[in-house]
Amino acid sequence: MAIEQVKAYLKGYGLADRIREFEESSATVELAAHAVGVEPARIAKSLSFKKEDHALIIVVAGDARIDNRKYKDTFGMKAKMLTAEEVEAYTGHQIGGVCPFANPESAEVYLDDSMKRFETVYPAAGSANSAVKLSLEELMQCSRAKGWVDVCKDLA
């Protein structure tokens, strides 16, 4: 199960004890915010896109939306989300539990500037009923992100 892989992965960073598992689903931003007890914007959602034969995972704030022009300007291609059939094969996680941890080596992870307004955020931890509280620095380190990008629509 992916959550067990994420626990083992985050243990290497001394962060596995922060994973929270819930009785209810946390598969959407709204459900995760309710389960964690925070505003939806602080849920760090992992959006998975197709780049040739691997995943490009962009972690964005829960209230952020991809700006197609910014995405194309940044990555040099049109934003094409993975299909439901591709998600697990390309990310190592099922829909609702996609996260920036314990992904296949070929997956590329980026963090979006939309999260920079928070000290801590809550990404999923490999299942549709989990989350982990991380500072942005911790998220950058343990996600092995290639860097910060600005690919979301400006928030009002």
Radius of gyration: 14 Å
Kindly report the average pLDDT value. 96
What form results from the Cα inertia axes? globular
Note the gap between the termini.
Answer: 39 Å
**How much strand?**
15-25%
Write the layout of secondary structure elements.
Blueprint: H1 2-11, E1 19-21, H2 29-36, E2 43-51, E3 54-61, H3 68-75, H4 84-91, E4 108-112, E5 120-123, E6 130-132, E7 134-135, H5 136-143, E8 148-149
Parallel strand pairs: 2-5, 3-4, 4-8
Antiparallel strand pairs: 1-6, 2-3, 5-7
List keywords for this structure.
156 residues; alpha/beta; two-stranded antiparallel ribbon; 27% helix; 23% strand
What does the model show?
- With 156 residues, this protein is α/β, with parallel strands linked by helices.
- Helices cover 27% and strands 23% of the residues.
- A hairpin with a 2-residue loop joins β2 and β3 (54-61).
- It is globular, with a radius of gyration of 14 Å.
- The N and C termini lie far apart (39 Å).
- InterPro entries: YbaK/aa-tRNA-synt-asso_dom_sf (IPR036754), YbaK/aa-tRNA-synth-assoc-dom (IPR007214).
- It comes from Candidatus Limivivens merdigallinarum.
- Pfam families: tRNA_edit.
- Residues 24-141 form the YbaK/aminoacyl-tRNA synthetase-associated domain.
